Amino acid sequence: MPESPEVQALVEDLGARLSGHELTGVDVVEFRATKTRARPPSSLRGERVRGVERHGKHVDIRVGASDVDAQHLIVSLGRHGWARYSSPEADAPAADAPPTLVAFTFDDGAVVEFTDAGDWVSLGCWVVDDPRDVPAVAKLGPDPADPAFSRADFDQMVAGRRKQVKAVLQEQESLAGIGNAYSDEILHTAKISPVAHAASLTDAELDRLFEATVGIITAAIDTQRGVPIDQLKAAKVAAMRVHGRAGEACPVCGDTVLDFSFASTTAQYCPTCQTGGERLPLRSA
């Protein structure tokens, strides 16, 4: 699942490529990806891109004659969505590449395709006057990547919650942009069990969790910045210390990284660093 560091790198790349260019063609291959049927993506044909921004895990392509009357193409990448950029000279995508659901062509011949690799359609597109007209964007909590994000913001959203801390980190209404992978990395760095309730955390643990949340996300954004968008997913995987590393040695203590069940997915942790040696349950498939 794309998370804020990869999406931030994506929007910066798209912003640099698309800003100032006119949208000349729209091809909606999968109609279920269109969430505003009265204002389909094709209604933006002829508009000029004014910038690209991020809201949590959402891409916001701002188009129009001016910022005052701009419309917003909001793209939710969902669980398996991503983008593919091509120019007239580019080779065709590989046969096993994720299928394109929506494609946008620009006046320089460039094409941006939004893809989805899942068994069900998780990609979604909205055309709105204000990004907050998209319910998921309107409900977003503060973003740890925002320079204005403060310890007070963090405490308001996390401290005292009677909920597993990993769930709180992934809850978009609490903290925008964090998913399964980076929550694993944050908790490992903070040396906190993923199943501990936020309300049970000591002041020292909250200090570590705040520092790890901001540090991991901002460092990942800095690392991913400038990576070609077709390599961002691989770069994310390569940078993980515990997420996706079950069976490997913890880079801090050398213990074996283990899987555990979380919601409908699997996550990873180090028992020595995070749970005092306790092994968390793993349900069979």
The third-level CATH topology of the largest domain is N-terminal domain of MutM-like DNA repair proteins
Shape descriptor: globular
Uncertain residue ranges: none
Elements, N to C (H/E): HEEEEEEEEHHHHHHEEH
Radius of gyration: 20 Å
Q: Walk across the major sheet and give the strand order.
A: 1-6-7-5
Let me know the average pLDDT: 94
Q: Summarize the main sheet.
A: 4 strands, antiparallel
Summarize this entry quickly.
Belongs to the FPG family. The chain has helices at 4-18, 135-138, 151-157, 165-170, 180-190, 203-224, 232-239, 271-274, and strands at 23-28, 49-55, 58-63, 71-76, 81-86, 100-106, 111-116, 124-128, 258-262, 265-269.
Structural account:
The chain is of the alpha+beta class and 285 residues long. It folds into two domains: 4-138, MutM-like, N-terminal (N-terminal domain of MutM-like DNA repair proteins); 151-274, Helicase, Ruva Protein, domain 3 (Orthogonal Bundle). The protein is built from eight helices and ten strands. It has helices at 4-18, 135-138, 151-157, 165-170, 180-190, 203-224, 232-239, 271-274, and strands spanning 23-28, 49-55, 58-63, 71-76, 81-86, 100-106, 111-116, 124-128, 258-262, 265-269. The strands form three sheets. It has a four-stranded antiparallel β-sheet with strand order 1-6-7-5, with no helix packed on it. Strands 2-3-4-8 form a four-stranded antiparallel β-sheet, with helices on one face. The longest helix is centred in the last third of the chain and has 22 residues, at 203-224. The radius of gyration is 20 Å and the shape is globular. Belongs to the FPG family. This is Endonuclease VIII. Residues 241-275 form the FPG-type domain.
